[in-house]
Design a protein that fits this description.
CATH topology: Maf protein
Strand content: 15-25%
Helix content: 25-40%
Shape: globular
Number of helices: 5
Largest sheet: 6 strands, mixed
Bound molecules: inosinic acid
Order of helices and strands: EHEHEHEEEHH
Number of domains: 1
CATH class: Alpha Beta
């Protein structure tokens, strides 16, 4: 049985500024005060699971326990069909340390060229998890299909946005106005499910 999430303080259990912006866009119009893990100087939890759901729960759980407030996290990534779903849960790691997403996009492109891939389809996946301090948990999954383009195009968004062209569009996520991306993204799809269940 889903538990209703009462408007109020909600911890965004992420250190990714792009995700915080998108989560604020989604939740603040509904009366939530979204406070990020960065603002609260929470430690970044280690993502040790092999699924988006598992990793999203690790992050939400850690933030709920540390703050005593309900916490929301997103674990997301890019699944490339011709690469058997890689980078998947390793999407952030492909950007190296410190994170450089041009490096990550180039690595995907190199791997596709190495196998002469003609199938350039890919999808972004987002799993949103909500954890309450008493241990109750919920997860919601959203996906958006598209194709990968090269070279990268556009200055907006974050991560792999400059190489991802959503189906039905000719521009990349990084060429779309943020509001337009946020209305169709994998996170928006997951958010719609969350809204129906918890709000
Ligand atoms: P994690 O969820 O922190 O493990 O990181 C997921 C990674 O997937 C991010 O660092 C981004 O590189 C990538 N990603 C997730 N969502 C998006 C998006 O909307 N646009 C571009 N890249 C994304």
């Amino acid at each position: 049985m889903s538990r209703k999430l009462q408007p109020g303080r909600l911890i965004a259990a992420t250190h990714n500024k792009g995700k915080v912006a998108e989560l604020k866009d989604l939740f603040e119009p509904l009366g939530f005060e979204v406070v990020s893990a960065v603002e609260l100087q929470l430690e970044e939890a280690e993502e040790t699971e092999l699924t988006f759901e598992g990793n999203a729960l690790i992050k939400a759980r850690a933030a709920a326990q540390a703050t005593g407030a309900p916490a929301l996290s997103d674990d997301s990534g890019l699944e490339v069909t011709a690469l058997g779903g890689m980078p998947g849960v390793h999407t952030a790691i492909w950007a190296g340390e410190p994170r450089d997403f041009y490096v990550a996009m180039e690595k995907v492109e190199r791997e596709l060229q190495a196998i002469d891939a003609t199938d350039r389809s890919a999808r972004f996946v987002s799993c949103l998890a909500v954890a309450w301090p008493d241990g109750h948990e919920e997860t919601f999954r959203g996906e958006i299909e598209g194709t990968l383009t090269w070279p990268p195009r556009g200055e907006m968004g974050f991560g792999y946005d400059p190489v991802f062209v959503p189906f039905g569009h000719e521009v990349t996520f990084a060429e779309l106005e943020p509001a337009q991306k946020h209305s169709m993204s994998h996170r928006a799809v997951a958010f719609d499910k969350l809204k129906k269940a918890l709000l």
